[in-house]
Amino acid sequence: MRRSFKFLLRPTARQVAALAACLEDHRQLYNAALEHRRTAYAKAGVSVRYGEQSAELKHIRGDDPDGQGRWSFSSQQATLRRLDKAFRAFFERVKTGRTPGYPRFKGRGRFDSVEWPKDGDGCRWDSQPDHPTATYVRLQGIGHVRVHQHRPVQGQVKTISVNREGSRWYVTLSCDEVPAAPLPATAAVAGIDLGVASLVTTSDGAQVANPRHLAATADRLGDAQRDLARKKRGSQRRRKQVARVAALHAKVRRQRLDGAHKAALALVRAYDVIAHEDLRITNMTRSASGTVEQPGRNVAQKSGLNRSILDAGWGVFLTILSHKAESAGRKLIAVNPAHTSRTCARCGHCAKDNRLTQAEFACTACGHAAHADVNAAINILRAGLALRQAAQAA
């Protein structure tokens, strides 16, 4: 199986400057390649492909030996492939009738990662294996950068990428042939309902609290963003304030990720089979503002709900749960979430009036009363086991 390992880098001041220069040159390469495609199509109706732009890299590097020529040829090819992937996704959206979203130029705050496609080609993981206390990664044009390796790397390192998050730098290793670590069977099954009041509610009645990291940091973020709005564009004070706001958001992101890892690990350890809702989070968090001619309804309430859903981090949690379940040999089943919160887990009666409030469920047919999220989790488990049985029968 494939797995990623992410570590904090400890670069020197000179290496920080080199990393920033590498990122900037790759950003400019991306933008130049995008401009090349736009101009060729606008002026001559010609579609430029990745192969043609990759072939031009040799001349670009030769004409700019102290700029583009400093960096790994393979990493620059990866940047061009990144642009090519954006165009292929654009044409796929056009073909399927979705909102196209033409690839855009990357500003300084919109390009934060560089990838080296192969370990040993312009980069080398554990480049100083004989060092007694530290781990290093070697990057062409930057040197041997110290890594805060907090856990062992498993499998074979295939690709290496470096990304900037605020003032911090991270290295991410994508590894193949990572051995699975199956957990002992528990013979237990569960359905889970994701919510805002509680992040996870199981069919057994257990609940995982929603820490609401963004809400807890809202006052500090608000103060920081108001201070940012008062700063003059291009000033040193504004750059420092931008870094402060980014650091607060990065902390919230790390807290949310840590909580998701812990909650997912607890579920994987406790249950052999886990059924969850197949949520379309992007659709659920669409704005209700509408247009001037047709304004949305309950815009303020919908905005608050969207913020709470995104703060809970359902998508991050489900992604982590999927990875941990695969590694542990557990079965994860996604079920259609339609009517799971309105259907009685005892008699099967489905009605809008069954759910009285956010937390209370009372069936209008049989009188069954339960916590609304627990009732929904039982329905999710039942649907998941039915899908599993149908798949085994097929």
Write the layout of secondary structure elements.
Layout: E1 3-10, H1 13-44, H2 50-55, H3 57-63, H4 73-96, E2 113-116, E3 123-125, E4 135-139, E5 143-148, E6 156-165, E7 168-176, E8 189-194, E9 198-202, E10 207-209, H5 213-216, H6 218-230, H7 236-270, E11 273-277, H8 281-284, H9 299-312, H10 314-328, E12 331-335, E13 360-362, E14 369-371, H11 372-393
Parallel strand pairs: 8-11, 11-12
Antiparallel strand pairs: 1-5, 1-7, 2-6, 3-4, 4-5, 6-7, 8-9, 9-10, 13-14
Helix pairs in contact: 1-4, 6-7, 7-10
What do you see in this structure?
In the N-terminal section; belongs to the transposase 2 family. In the C-terminal section; belongs to the transposase 35 family. This is Transposase. With 394 residues, the protein is α+β, with helices and mostly antiparallel strands. The protein has two domains: 3-176, no CATH class; 189-393, no CATH class. The protein is 45% helix and 19% strand. It has eleven helices and 14 strands. The protein has helices at 13-44, 50-55, 57-63, 73-96, 213-216, 218-230, 236-270, 281-284, 299-312, 314-328, 372-393, and strands at residues 3-10, 113-116, 123-125, 135-139, 143-148, 156-165, 168-176, 189-194, 198-202, 207-209, 273-277, 331-335, 360-362, 369-371. The strands form three sheets. It has a seven-stranded antiparallel beta sheet with strand order 2-6-7-1-5-4-3. It has a five-stranded mixed beta sheet with strand order 10-9-8-11-12. It has a two-stranded antiparallel sheet with strand order 13-14. The chain starts with a strand and ends with a helix. 24% of the residues are buried. The model has no long low-confidence stretch (mean pLDDT 93).
